[in-house]
From TrEMBL:
Keyword Hydrolase (UniProt): yes
Stretches assigned to the Metallo-beta-lactamase domain: 45-262
Pfam families linked to this entry: Lactamase_B (PF00753)
Keyword field: Hydrolase
Domain of life where this protein originates: Bacteria
Name of the featured protein: MBL fold metallo-hydrolase
Molecular function, one GO term: hydrolase activity
Matching InterPro entries: Metallo-B-lactamas, RibonucZ/Hydroxyglut_hydro, Sec-metab_biosynth-thioest
Membrane-traversing stretches: none
Annotated organism of origin: Nocardioides silvaticus
């Protein structure tokens, strides 16, 4: 599902240009949005937000630690009067590499505090183990894919894992500060509420500036796309249930302007949360219909009955990576149906099989 406008063509009101256009765009007094490039086909950029403070800026997210992103961040910061040495803190929304890795590299080079949610620690531990070679030759997502019944995809992901793809410990250094629970953080003249919103990842945080009506939403509330659910290791029980509960939690905040990690600035957190919740309820209904039609089956089979991307592509039209993502996300929906008592599940050699509850 997406919002009303495709991410590929969406114009952001702060710039009047495509949301990924190069620049430091002022979204509010003392706050600039800097889109940094990503080396992937689907998402072209990640938004990094620069929040002014008396002693220097705080950055919300950091981007992917690739040379082109680092160079552009340096250029854009200098255009608004800052250098890397001025950064006081990185408030990172979650562990994914397009948010965390450049933050931790720059933070440890220049002495800026790097802050991350404590429930991301098991994921960092796993990445460090992989970087030491403990998981060499095996993809950590393969087990999740096998449990989703995507056996061929799991085998292909494992075969495609190369030594040069192992995590670099420099990119995944532990943060200086762990966030535990909901806390208020002073950022210059502002008080920003760090709100724990698990679902996309276990330790995802959004940052709410209630006084100025702003929500630094990370990947939790995206204006034109839905964040992936279930794409995390170690695997979490009921990630979609956590995500939808976190959406309800954000809905209980005042209606805020969305400053997302991907896509344009958007006017209403309440409106977008309502759309996201409705989308996932519709997907849950579609999963129930698939199980009623097919009988007991695995998530990867149910995924073939669903449409994918805003173009409603079939599962078979997806590339290998996105087939894996689709299978894991479908499993997350089926696990929530089990938690709600609408489905049952059982372990088999072909993966977890689900059926409609009697």
């Amino acid at each position: 599902m997406s919002g009303g406008v495709s991410t590929g063509v969406a114009v952001s009101p702060d710039s009047g240009e495509h949301w990924a256009a190069e620049g430091a765009w002022e979204v509010a007094p003392g706050i600039h949005r800097i889109p940094l490039p990503l080396p992937m086909d689907g998402l072209k950029a990640v938004n990094v937000y620069v929040v002014a403070g008396e002693d220097g800026p705080t950055l919300i997210d950091g981007g992917w630690a690739i040379p082109v992103a680092r160079e552009l961040l340096d250029k854009c910061l200098r255009s608004i009067g800052y250098g890397f040495e001025d950064i006081q803190r990185f408030l990172v929304t979650h562990i994914h590499r397009d948010h965390y890795t450049l933050a931790t590299v720059l933070g440890h080079e220049y002495g800026a505090d790097v802050t991350l949610g404590l429930p991301e620690r098991p994921g960092l531990d796993l990445l460090h183990a992989a970087g030491r070679g403990d998981y060499a030759g095996s993809n950590p997502f393969a087990g999740v894919l096998r449990s989703a019944g995507a056996l061929e995809v799991a085998a292909a992901w494992e075969l495609g894992r190369r030594v040069e793809d192992l995590p670099d410990p420099v990119d995944w250094a532990y943060p200086d500060t762990w966030l535990d629970g909901d806390v208020a953080i002073d950022v210059g003249r502002r008080t920003i509420d760090a709100v724990h919103t698990p679902g996309h990842t276990p330790g995802h945080y959004v940052y709410a500036d209630r006084a100025d009506g702003l929500l630094f939403a990370g990947d939790h509330v995206l204006p034109t796309i839905t964040p992936s659910i279930g794409f995390t290791v170690p695997p979490e029980p009921d990630p979609l249930g956590h995500f939808m509960a976190s959406l309800t939690k954000v809905r209980s905040l005042p209606d805020l302007r969305i400053l997302p990690a991907h896509g344009p600035v958007a006017p209403s957190s309440h409106a977008r949360v309502d759309e996201l919740l409705a989308h996932h309820e519709e997907r849950l209904d579609q999963c129930v219909a698939s199980l009623r039609s097919r009988g007991a089956t695995v998530a990867a089979v149910v995924a073939t009955d669903l449409g994918w991307t805003r173009h409603e592509r079939s599962y078979d039209e997806l590339d290998l990576f996105n087939k894996g993502m689709a299978a894991m996300e479908t499993k997350a929906h089926l696990d929530l149906l089990v938690a709600r008592g609408q489905a049952t599940c059982s372990e088999t050699d072909e993966g977890v099989r689900y059926a409609v509850a009697d």
